[in-house]
Amino acid sequence: MSIFWSLAALLVVATLAALLRPLLRKGRVSSAPKRDEAAIAVFRDQKRALDAESASGVISEAERNAALAELTRRVAEEADAPVTTPSPSPRRAWPIALALLIVVPVAAVLLYMRLGNPEATLSTANAGMGHEVSRDQIVTMVDNLAKRLKQRPDDADGWILLAHSYQALERFPEAADAYAHAYALIRNDPGLIADYADALAMAQGRKLAGEPTRLVDRALAIDPKQKKALALAATSALEARDLDGSIRYWRRLAAELPAGSDEARRVTDVIAEVEAAKREGKGSSAPSTTAARSDAAAQPQSVIKADAGAISGRVDLSPAFTSRVALSDTVFIFARAADGPRIPLAVLRIPAKELPRNFTLDDSMGMAPSAKLSGANSVVVEARISKSGNAIPQPGDLFGRSAPVKPGASSLAITIDQVVP
């Protein structure tokens, strides 16, 4: 924004200079110092011509003398005549100059406000400021939110926002504590209870045994079809080596997913692997079961039916970067407002080994109840590979992003082909 207005100011100054200079320049009276020299040069040329004509007999001596006398008289008159340069009256020039100093800048601003796009400069400034937000600044904002909630302990939405923020920062014990405060205020929300159970499991070493499992059971008692709770219950049974129980929960979850969807296919694959493990007499999880939980449980949004504002597409990795990505790297797929705060409106987290990957982002994947994907005018979807697993961009991370699109867009194609500087 500062560059734009600086250039605009320079143009106004240049315009004023061009208009005021001739008005304020003082008039001069000149006698044309070189005029005499020119007249004398003309006199000499004509005198030589008269002398030549007299010598050749074209004119008589008397005619030559008469013509020479007339020529001398004219040169004398021209040399004596002053030459003046008209100039405007200084008293009339100054009011005009002052009027121009006021009218030109005001007219420029008014025309831009009416015919231009002032919001574009503000949006650009906001976007640039948002891009410069560091991890420390985000941590400070989250910590400030936590301090404010101590003054307003009954703000359930605030506790949920704080819990989501802690999860994004991978501060799982604090996230579980924030969910506990929200759960104390909202006792019968199965989705909130499932989120609380998941954060608590992450805080205790990714284990669902104990209180997380009891919370999952309560969520399913309220809503037997709650998708994240079903995924967590299936994973909990798998941890307890109850393969039959795990298969039952996975099948119940599969029945709630759209037929033919990516989520339904992944759950079907997990069921097949658990059944294979059961046939082989294994009492532990199949290799990809943990990945299935990361989609269906740790990231519940991937198994929740997309709403009208959902965005879907596919993320690919540029072949040039294949050697730079490890299977253990983390991929964040998120949507943010094209103009405005850079807080993600929807986030999906997957392991890098799942690339290329079809995705769906919707309102259930947001970090704040008041910031919904479906409510944005336009959004940018970005996919970023994090070596550290950190949600905050780090130098060396790989990313790709879409052009601005409307909520509800589908078939987006995003290629990860750039490096975070």
Write the layout of secondary structure elements.
Blueprint: H1 2-24, E1 29-30, H2 35-55, H3 61-80, E2 83-84, H4 90-115, H5 118-131, H6 135-151, H7 156-168, H8 172-185, H9 190-203, H10 211-222, H11 227-239, H12 243-256, H13 262-279, H14 289-298, E3 311-317, E4 330-337, E5 346-351, E6 357-361, E7 379-386, E8 398-401, E9 412-416, E10 418-419
Parallel strand pairs: 3-9
Antiparallel strand pairs: 1-2, 3-6, 4-5, 4-7, 7-8, 8-10
Keywords:
421 residues, alpha+beta, 3-stranded mixed beta sheet, 14 helices
Order of neighbouring strands in the sheet with most strands: 5-4-7-8-10
Main sheet attributes: strand count, strand direction, barrel closure: 5 strands, antiparallel
Instruction: Round the mean pLDDT to the nearest integer and report it.
Output: 76
Q: How many DSSP E strands? A: 10
Percent of residues in beta strands:
5-15%
Order of helices and strands: HEHHEHHHHHHHHHHHEEEEEEEE
Number of separate helices: 14
The helix content, as a percent range, equals: 40-55%
